[in-house]
Amino acid sequence: MNLELFLAQRRPSWQQLEKLLDQTKNNIQALSSQDLAQMGRLYRSVTSDLALAQRDFPNQRVTHYLNQLVSRAHAQIYREEPLRRQALQQFYDREFPLLYRALLPYTILCFAVFLIGAMIAFWFTWRDPAAIYVFVGRGIEGLVQRVESGELWTNIPPSERSVASSTILTNNIRVMFLTFAGGITGGVLTLWVILSNGIQLGAIFGLLQAHGMSAGLGEFIVAHGFIELSVIFLAGGCGLYMGDAILRPGLLTRRDALIQRSRQSVLLILGCVPLLILAGLIEGFISPSGLPWSFKLAVGLVTGGLLHAYWLRWGRSNTQSTGASSLS
Questions:
Q1: In whole angstroms, what is the distance from residue 243 CA to residue 100 CA?
Q2: Contact, 207 vs 147, CB < 8 A?
Q3: Among 49, 133, 143, 290, which residue has the least CB neighbours within 10 Å?
Q4: C-alpha to C-alpha distance for 2 and 7, rounded to whole angstroms
Q5: What is the number of alpha carbons within 13 Å of residue 105 lying toward its C-beta?
Q6: Exposure string (b/e) for 88-101, b if CB count within 10 Å is 16 or more?
Q7: How distant is the alpha carbon of residue 51 from its chain centre?
Q8: Could you report the per-residue pLDDT of 127-178, keeping only the tens digit for each?
Q9: How far apart, in whole angstroms, are the C-alpha atoms of residue 119 and residue 109?
Q10: Any idea what the Cα angle at residue 238 is, between residues 237 and 243, rounded to 5°?
Q11: What stretch of H or E contains 24?
C-alpha cells in the first residue's frame, strides 16, 4: 500500500480516537455510552492499522505513532477499575456498620473475656502487688520498680510524642492483626490474645491502685481507650467469627466457610485502620499532654460515643436484612 494513501484514508480515525482519549482525562467513565462504543470501534480499527503499518511501513514515523496511540487506548480501555470515591463512601456509609452489627455477638464475647480477665488480675494484684509477676511475668520488674518509686511511665516528653505516636500506632495495628489472624486456630489464639491483654491491663491497674497511682493511668488511657479497645474487640470478634466457620461450617465445607468469612472480616479490619490511626494520634499527643483530665475524658466519650452510634445505628434501611443475611 502507498504510504500517502494510507495516511489520507486512515488519519481521520486516528484523530477521532485521540480526541476521545483526550476527553477521558484518565477517567474513561467521563465518556458517554455512545462515545465509549465509538472508542471501542476506533480502537479495533487503529489496532488493525498498526498491524498493517508494521508489515508495510516498519521504519516509518507513522508506525511509531500508531504504536503509541494503541498503547494509550489499551491502557484506558483495559486498565483495572480504580477504587473510586463512591465505592469508598458506600463502604463506610452502609457496609461497614452492617458488618459490625452482624458480628456483634462475637465482639461482645471478646469484650466479656477481656473484662473478666482484667477484673480478676486487678483484684489479686491490688490485694498483693507481687501477684503481678504471676499475671505478667518477670519482664515487668523494671516498671514495678518505677511505680514503687512513685513514678508513672506514661509522661511522654513533647519532643518524643511524634515518635511515640508512630510506635503506638504500629503496636496497635500489630495487636489488631494478631487478634484477627487467631481465627485460623479456631479462635483459640484470638481468645488468648484478648484474655492476656485484659489480664495485663488489669494487673497494671491493680499495681497502681495498690500504690495510689491508678488515677494517673486512667487519665492517660481515657482519651484514646474507647476507640482503641473497641477496635481490638472488633478484631477479636472477626477472629472468633472465622474460628466459628472452622468449628461450625454449616452446609459449606470448612475451607469454603473460612474463605467466605475471611473476606467479610478483612473488610472490617481494613475499615478499622483509620480508627487506629486516630487512636494513635490521640494517644501520642493528647493523652500524655498537660490538658485537664476533664478534657481528655470528653475526648474519649465523644469519640467513643460517635463511633458506637455510627456502628450501631448508621446504615439501617430496608437493605440491612439483605446485608446481614449474606453473612450467615
A1: 17
A2: yes
A3: 290
A4: 9
A5: 3
A6: eeeeeebbbbbbbb
A7: 46
A8: 999 999 999 998 888 888 888 888 877 765 666 555 545 555 566 677 888 8
A9: 15
A10: 95
A11: helix 3-24
3-state secondary structure of 111: helix
Highest mean pLDDT among 17-31, 163-177, 293-307: 293-307
Contact 182, 188 (CB under 8 A): yes
DSSP summary character for residue 211: T
Q: Which amino acid is at 140?
A: I
Radius of gyration of the chain (CA): 29
Joined together, the cell numbers standing for residue 241 give 467469627
Asked whether the beta carbons of 205 and 122 are under 8 A apart, the reply is yes
- Asked whether the predicted pLDDT for residue 27 surpasses 80, the reply is no
Residues, the chain, total? 328
Answer whether 0.85 is exceeded by the pTM. no
Amino acid at position 283, single letter: E
Distances (CA, A) of 72 to 26, 28, 46, 82, 110: 10, 12, 12, 17, 52
Q: How many CB atoms lie within 10 A of CB 199?
A: 22
